[in-house]
Specification:
CATH class of the largest domain: Mainly Alpha
Strand content: 5-15%
Radius of gyration: 17 Å
CATH topology of the largest domain: Glutathione S-transferase Yfyf (Class Pi), Chain A, domain 2
Structural class: alpha+beta
Shape: globular
Number of helices: 8
Largest sheet: 4 strands, mixed
Bound molecules: glutathione
Mean pLDDT: 96
Distance between the termini: 33 Å
Order of helices and strands: EHEHEEHHHHHH
Length: about 210
């Protein structure tokens, strides 16, 4: 099977990379340089008109969206137990992952680039303020969920990774995160997983290559 992951440093493509690595999949990573807007190149738009990463191709078939990608990985590599088997727990795992990708992630995008939402400078500040408040609200909920536990479930799942990515992105914006002690402990725990160490090393090497 020919598995390719379109990836870019700093982005949530690391969620799919880690899921593939945790599952023991053999795959090729294709890095895109967002600073050079390679995701908007004709060549990539022909592959993914949504111009986003991650994108997974499997023998030429395409899957976008982390949630869909990890679902495929889980089905293809069942021994990895990437997602819980019990239907209730499985639904809860989707619920948390969907919340990270659809309920938290968009606010981070708005903080990063309010101009994508509004082209009036005075309004942009309000968007950052309100998005930051929404992030704090989500992290308060996550902090309670993570109180007294290592992962969102009884074992590490891709939702943990997507939350890690959200928290990491928030840290890069230098938000005031000190009160979210359980989120920080979760972040430290996730950082130590070999699959995550691997993707962070990849990020560094790809960034160095792009800079040279
Ligand atoms: N919900 C999607 C989000 C994908 C996404 O927004 N990716 C960003 C990077 S974190 C991207 O590729 N942005 C480039 C663009 O929108 O042009 C997922 O979880 O896969």
């Amino acid at each position: 099977m020919d598995i390719k992951l379109y990836y870019a440093p700093i982005t949530c493509a690391m969620v799919s990379y880690v899921a593939l690595t945790e599952a023991g999949a053999n795959f090729e990573t294709i890095p895109l340089d967002f600073r050079k807007a390679e995701h908007l190149d004709e060549e990539y738009l022909a592959i993914n008109p949504k111009h986003k990463v991650p994108l997974l191709t499997v023998d030429g078939h395409k899957i976008s969206e982390n949630l869909a990608i990890v679902t495929w990985i889980d089905a293809q590599f069942p021994d990895s137990q990437l997602l819980p088997l019990n239907p209730w727990d499985r639904a809860q795992a989707y619920s948390i992952h969907g919340w990270c990708s659809g309920g938290i992630h968009p606010y981070l995008r708005q903080i990063n680039n309010p101009a994508k939402v509004v082209d009036v400078a005075e309004v942009a500040d309000g968007i950052v303020t309100n998005s930051t408040a929404a992030i704090y609200e989500s992290f308060t909920i996550a902090n309670d969920m993570l109180d007294g536990r290592d992962w969102f479930f009884d074992h590490f799942i891709p939702a943990d990774m997507h939350f890690f990515w959200c928290y990491r992105r928030a840290k890069q914006f230098e938000l005031d995160l000190e009160r979210f002690n359980h989120c920080q402990a979760h972040f430290d725990r996730v950082s130590e997983r070999p699959s995550v160490v691997k993707v962070l090393e990849l990020e560094q090497s790809v960034q160095a290559k792009f800079a040279s």
